[in-house]
Every structure is written in structure tokens, then in C-alpha cells.
Amino acid sequence: MNKPIVLQLNANWMPIGQKTVKQAIIAMTSGGNSPPALALDIAYELNEHGEYDFSTPSYINPVGWNEWMTLEVRDYDFGISTIHSKIRVPTVLIAPSYRHVPSRTPRSTKYNVFNRDNGICQYTGKYVSRGKGNVDHILPVSRGGKNVWSNMVWCDATVNSKKGSKLPHEAGLRLIKKPREPIATPITVLMSDANHPSWTPFLINR
């Protein structure tokens, strides 16, 4: 019930997140201020090797909770046992009244700072691999600097060691450009890993 194997789609069938099985069932049975979510009834056919081909569904049909409870639990489905029956676990959900695509700004980690700066040391202008560079805080943490995009740049480890707890001008250094927060990226673009085979047809970067 707590496994995040349910892909959340907006009304345009674009990926916008993921839910646990428990969250998906709650969304289907109680819409709150919005219409309840619909689950996709997705069917697959056996290929020539006698295996189900999860890359090409034979049909996709959005259904509400009442109809969902009547669907058969097939060989490739997960099921939840209740007192009276067994219910198929939904793996792809649609929010019928939500058409937006949320965006996400990357966290200011070493890996992401390296990517934002394209591996270029922001003091020397030379490419520095991840093994030979690190993140420099323009205003050192020891002097009140924060772990925010505008205060973090990719830097040659040797240069960073020389700079220490100084400000750039105090160490005789100059930034080649002012660091900025990366542009937020639509979640649809960021989602590429399928937690369940049924997600595959809906992921852009699969």
C-alpha cells in the first residue's frame, strides 16, 4: 500500500508525479474539492515468446472507482485482498480537472552546481572534472554564506583551497559570471524512471 508504483497524470495525460497505492485509492474514492481521480485499465497481449509486452498496450480505458472494483485481477496485476473480494491495484492515475504541469528547480548540490556551470571553474574559466573540483561558497559559510544557488559556483579544488575563508577579491580572484538559480524544469521532462511497466508509454524520457 505504501509503494510509489502509481504514476499521476494530469487531464492531458502528461506525467506530473507519483503516488503510493494508498494515496491513489484515496484519490479515487474521495476527490475533495475536485472530481475523484480515474485509474487507467490497461491491457497487454502475449508476444511470440509467451511474455506480456508491456511496451505496447492493447487498450487503455479510464474508469472510476465503482467500475474499477469490478475489474478482474489478471496474472500481471497486483491485488489487494478485502473481506469480500480481491481488488486490482491501480498503477496509472488521471486527475480529470488538473491541466497544469508543475515545475521543479534542482537542489543546489555539488552534482547540480557542476552541471549548471558545465564543469567550468568560475574563477579560471577552465574545465575541471568532478574529481578535481568542488563547490566554492562565494561568501564562505564561516562568514555567514548560505547553501543557495547565488552563493555557489564550481571551482578548481586547488583554487578553492587557496581562497579558503576569503571573499574572491580578498584572494585575488574574480568570478567569470554571476551565478544564478537554474530555470525550473517541468516535472514531465524530469520523470524518466518507471516504477512499474505500465508507466512506460507515458514517460517522455524513457
Describe the structure.
By secondary structure, the protein is α+β, with helices and mostly antiparallel strands. Helix content is 15%, strand content 21%. It folds into two domains: 6-100 and 187-202, no CATH class; 110-171, DNA Binding (I), subunit A (Orthogonal Bundle), CATH 1.10.30.50. It contains five helices and eleven strands; from the N terminus they run E-E-H-E-E-H-E-E-E-E-H-E-E-H-E-H.
Task: Summarize this entry quickly.
The protein is built from five helices and eleven strands, in the order ββαββαββββαββαβα. By secondary structure, it is of the alpha+beta class.
List keywords for this structure.
206 residues; alpha+beta; DNA Binding (I), subunit A; five-stranded mixed β-sheet; two-stranded antiparallel ribbon; 5 helices; 15% helix; elongated
Largest sheet: 5 strands, mixed
Helical content class: 10-25%
Give the ordered list of helices and strands. EEHEEHEEEEHEEHEH
The overall pLDDT average reads: 92
> How many strand units?
11
- Order of strands across the widest beta sheet? 2-1-7-3-4
Shape: elongated
Low-confidence stretches: none
Radius of gyration: 24 Å
Distance between the termini: 25 Å
